[in-house]
Amino acid sequence: MMRKSKSTAKKLARPRVLRTLSAMRTWSAQVRGKRETVALVPTMGALHAGHLALVRLAKRRADRVVVSIFVNPAQFAPNEDFSSYPRTWDADIAALSELSVDAIWAPGVATMYPDGFATKIAPGGPALAGLEDKFRPHFFGGVCTVVAKLLLQVAPDFATFGEKDYQQLKVVTAMARDLDIPTKIVGLPTVREKDGLAMSSRNAYLSADERAAAPTLHRVLKECAARLKAGQPLATTLGEGEAEIESARFAVDYFEARHAETLTKVASLADGPVRLLVAAKIGRTRLIDNIGV
Fold it and tell me: What whole-number distance in Å separates Cα of residue 165 and Cα of residue 290?
């Protein structure tokens, strides 16, 4: 009889894939019946190292982890990239299997937005800060509607979001608080490439030259934070930083200093805590980043 080689890789357990609302609620009820805690990692798929860091955070926080994969049409404007948004199901399943995720919630559009669906959330507060909402006025309504549905469907104790989408993190936190959804929203510091570029599914759209220029955003954010800590005036610092970003062939949508919790405008570090936030387009790709001061 032949013995199996010790080098034979152990087959990874595939997460349970849930596609119907009844299956999702049954799974959640069974877990809660065992008094186990649940964490949700909401994603639109095309998973990268940033998403996987959120999964690891979720695993530290809870007994069971659910990753949702749903490309949400409600947060794309007609001129945006819904149809071309990367969809990498097989690779996503493999990555989540490596991390021993318990379940994947993968509803279809008809499940999330069935015929007759007529209710949307209209967030205020940090959703109307004049940052992403100024350039994508549809966005946070779509995000809040789908995240509220996910939280109610999965009923997690925790949900993890990355700080790279900082305004989104603050908007979702406020929504869960204001609507009395008993899920704690947990933020994770931005996961970056070795050269500082914030990880994002949209980085795949960058050409080689654009990718080489992209780390400028993080470098300028760090330099401006250091200048502010050294006492340089806010307006001067932001002006110099924006000019430097533009010199790297970016078209800047905003480069702002805001209160780190409310996202209201600040005049100096004395109004803090302060967060620097930037959104800029290079070629056809729009990137965002932020840093605390």
Answer: 8
- Give me the residues paired with residue 161 across strands: 187
Co-location of 212 and 159 in the same domain: no
Q: What is the identity of the amino acid at 255?
A: F
| DSSP helix, strand, coil percent of the chain (3-state; round to 5) | 45, 20, 40
What is the reported pTM? 0.92
Q: Name the phi and psi angles at 238, rounded to 5.
A: -65, -40
Look up the domain containing 277 and give its range: 201-292
* CA dist., res. 259 & res. 263, Å (int): 5
Residue 10 confidence (pLDDT): 52
Q: Is the pLDDT of residue 219 over 50?
A: yes
What pLDDT, in 10s, does the model give residues 89-124? 999 999 999 999 999 999 999 999 999 999 999 999
Q: What's the distance, Cα to Cα, between the start and end of the chain in Å?
A: 66
The radius of gyration of the chain's CA atoms, rounded to the nearest angstrom, is 21
Distance (Å, whole) CA 110 – CA 83: 16
Structure tokens at 210: 């654009």
- Residues 159 and 21 occupy one common structural domain: yes
Contacts of 86 (CB under 8 A, 6+ apart): 45, 46, 201, 204
d(CA 3, CA 266): 69
List of residues 6+ apart from 239 with CB closer than 8 A: none
134: part of which helix (H) or strand (E)? helix 132-135
Task: Please identify every residue annotated as catalytic.
Answer: 51
